[in-house]
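Hey, quick one: can you model this chain's 3D structure?
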Amino acid sequence: MSAITYDTIKIVGVPYSKLLSLEITHFPNQHGTAKMTGLIPYADAMEFTQRVDETFAIDITTSAEGSRRSCSMAW
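Sure thing. Here's the predicted structure for all 75 residues.
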């Protein structure tokens, strides 16, 4: 099993240029939550805030060998 690192994580749906931190929390029979901190170019951030609503979701995946590879989160 490979370690999950910032280099093996990909977040689809958020136009970040650098991931600074990522915290994923999940408990049995509960919704999972993800909190990410990163850098987003200003123009991309302005466009991103205009299209986020209650139907928005992101996909968090890892290429680390032997780990769960995908997690989808609603906004």
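One thing worth noting: The mean pLDDT is 80.
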